[in-house]
Amino acid sequence: MHRVPPLIAAFIASYVDLLAFLTRRIGCSDRAADVLHDVCLTLLTSSTRRTTARDPRAYLFRVARNCAVDELRRQSRADRRRSDHPQLADLASASPPPDSHVLDRDRLRHLDAALSRLPPNARDALLLTRLEGLNYAEVAAHLGVSESMVAKYVARALRECRDHLRRLDDEA
Description:
- By secondary structure, the protein is mainly α.
- Helices cover 72% and strands 0% of the residues.
- It has seven helices and no strands.
- It starts with 5 loop residues before the first helix and ends with a helix.
- Residues 99-103 have low confidence and may be disordered.
């Protein structure tokens, strides 16, 4: 018979409490469920799953708290990036905003044209950070470049898209 590691057993037993804790901490049940998934992955991939924590439940809540802090920081960075570039804020949203009719098809077509003119790494870095929500370290690993290079790619892509949209606004 296969024995379940103590931390995994504690995770299963505390699932509902962990979800409630994360929902209170993050303020959104859907995001809390995603963070709880991250907690589970952390447990399954870490070397601690083979060790015995003195208080497995307390350990789980500490891991959950740390994952929640990471999520809140990630969200804060994404919010700041969107507010720094209001013309590109809609790129970060997975679903169209209620007032999406304001950004008409011509503007989307022009933004798509601006994106298609970018060098592949700059375009990929922008789309991976804005659409996929990856951080610079994850994008750097994906593209095989440094984090500072990712920052340069994103800055260039945002600058070129902004300039392209401004030129269109000036022509109108």
